Every structure is written in structure tokens, then in C-alpha cells.
Amino acid sequence: MSSIERYDALHNTWEEFPTCLPEPRMAMGVAAGENHIWVAGGITKTKRLCIVVDSVWCYDHDYKCWLKRCKLPQPLAFCTLLADKGRVISLGGVTRAQVGEDYSLESVNKVYVMGDSKDDSWTEDVPMPLGCHNVVASNIDGNIYVFGGFRTQSMDQMVNTVYFDKNKNVWEPLCELPKKAAGFVVAICKN
């Protein structure tokens, strides 16, 4: 899929975004921040195969176009993206893993940061405690909170919640979710 729809709150309607994604994909990470929309990784389909990709695109509202950016360090699908103060953060996801002669998708615990969205390079940061994908995450003052998601290793939804303490530079556990949850919404406020 390469089309994008946006919601117009003023008129309570949906409208087609002016430009489509340059490459059709699904299961990608998406984030918005500082007049940009970021799309990273995902799955594309060829005639016979579904392929996990590492490409990154950025829509610049000033120039009204998609710009190809530095690739992720590895192909990822179902990663979670955060955009904050010029940084773009990729959390977890799945990548293609070889098991004997077969291939499968495997959850990863990788955290990648594009330190300055104009710098166009990714660095690996402190990995999350568990490999996971499709998580809900939020960044508050540089502390990252991660909720739920899935693990391909067990094919279960996760009840784990963790946060990255930027002062200690470490992931810390929080209490478990009240029930297994994935694909849910979390709202966080400072109070």
C-alpha cells in the first residue's frame, strides 16, 4: 500500500494525502515530529515473496515531498518509531532469520537512534531487555516508556512494561500490564 489518508478535524472528514509513499509497504514504523513524517522499514511484496526492508523515508511539509534518508542498520518490520527534538528512535521490530533451510521472522531488542534528523546516520543505543515488536511507546523528557507488544519467540502478547532512564542509561522494569495487550493506545501526561 502506498496511499495515505489524513483526518481533517475541522471538517470531520478523511482526505487523501497529496503524495503517496514512494515505495508501497506495510508493517512499517511511523512517527511525526518537527514538520516531518517518518516512515522506516516495513514489508514489501514482490511477485512471489514478502521482503522486510531497511529503507527510510521522510516527508517534509515545507518542500511537500518525500526524501529518501539513511537506511536502518538492518531490515525491520513492525518497529516502533518516535520523533523528538530532531531525533528519530527505532524500537524493536522483527527481522528475517534463517532457521535451518527455512526463514522466519524474529523479534529483536535493538534500539537505533538518528541523533540529528539532518545528520542522516543511525547509531545503536542500549538494547531493550527483550526482543519485541509492535509495541506502544512514548518519550517524555528523554525517558522512553514501552508497553505491551509481541514476541515471535513465544508468539504471545506481552505484559511487560519498561522504561529507559536517560540519567542512568539503563532500561528499568515497570509493573506488568493488567492483562496481555498489544495494539492498544496509551496516553501519558506529566501530571
Automatic annotation (TrEMBL):
Q: Which residues form the signal peptide?
A: none
Ordered alphabetically, the record's keywords are:
Kelch repeat, Repeat
Q: Does the keyword Repeat apply?
A: yes
The record's listing under InterPro entries reads:
Gal_Oxase/kelch_b-propeller, Kelch-typ_b-propeller, Kelch_1, Kelch_2
Name the domain of life this protein comes from.
Answer: Eukaryota
Gene3D superfamilies attached to this UniProt entry: Kelch-type beta propeller (2.120.10.80)
Q: What is this protein called?
A: Beta-scruin
Native species: Trichonephila clavata (Joro spider)
Species classification: Eukaryota, Metazoa, Ecdysozoa, Arthropoda, Chelicerata
